[in-house]
Structures are given as C-alpha cells and as structure tokens.
Amino acid sequence: MKLIIINGPNLNLLGKREPEIYGSQTFEDYLEKLQQKFKNVSIEYYQSNVEGEIINKLHEKGFDYDGIILNAGAYTHTSVGIGDAIKGISTPVVEVHISNTFGREAFRHQSYISPNAKGVILGFGMQSYDLAVESFM
Ligand code: CA2
Q1: Which of 40, 51, 82, 109 has the smallest set of CB atoms within 10 Å of its CB?
Q2: Which CATH number fits the domain that encloses residue 6?
Q3: Domains held by the chain: number
Q4: 113 C-beta closer than 6 A to ligand 1
Q5: pLDDT tens, 100-127?
C-alpha cells in the first residue's frame, strides 16, 4: 500500500514552537516512528507552505496512490482551491488535524476539505496520523 502525508503551512515548525498545542516532536522524528510501526505500508511525506504547491502535489499523487493523508493547516479553513483539487482526483483523502479544531476559534470550525474527504480525524495529537494510516488498512 502506497500512502502520502501532505502537510500544509507552518507544520514545518512542529516541535519548535507552541508545544502546548502541537507537541514537542518534529514531524521528521515522528515520521520515522510511524514508518517503523507500519512497515508494510509505504508512507511518503511532503510539506509545503504554498497553496499552489499543495494543489500540484494532490494532482501529481492523486491518481495512483492508495491514499492521501492531508493536514492542510490553516488552508483547511480558507482554500476553495484545495477543496476543488480533492474533488478532481481519484485517490481518497483523509483529512487530519493534530488539535481539536472544534474546541478552538470559530474560524477553525469551517473546513473546505471535509466535504470532499473520505473521513476526518482530529484532536488526537500526532496520533491522528496513526489513525489515518489505519483507516486505509
Ligand atoms: O491542528 C492542526 O493540525 C491544524 O491543522 C494546525 C494548523 C491550524 O491552522 C489548523 O487550524 C489546525 C496550524 C499549524 C501550525 O503549526 C505550528 C506548529 C508549531 C509552531 C507553530 C505552528
């Protein structure tokens, strides 16, 4: 099985700032553990702070991968373009968030990803990504 995790803006700062919300682990350290845990799954990783680059990656991977795990960061709440890109590909997308966005500011309750996603996993810290991988098994 071939999966890709796509992380959006500022998620490159994980483990470096705001540990009370997002934990103290860098994504690279976490990813190594995830790959060890799911040895039979190929888990690729891509991060970008640029909306168009995320859309390009969805187009590039969205026809022959088994699944896409997408944390679009703040673009979740603003990007019609990323929502449309998910509609335009055939690979199922699972939306993931580290924090419980419904327990935070009202603007984080809106998602342009959710209506087009296979499912949504949020609020379990980094474990949200583990659960997303399991959802494809
Ligand atoms: O909870 C999530 O996973 C979010 O997608 C994270 C986004 C936020 O805008 C969404 O509402 C919910 C923010 C990612 C910022 O990550 C940082 C990590 C460390 C330090 C600063 C920002």
Answers
A1: 40
A2: 3.40.50.9100
A3: 1
A4: no
A5: 999 999 999 999 999 999 999 999 999 9
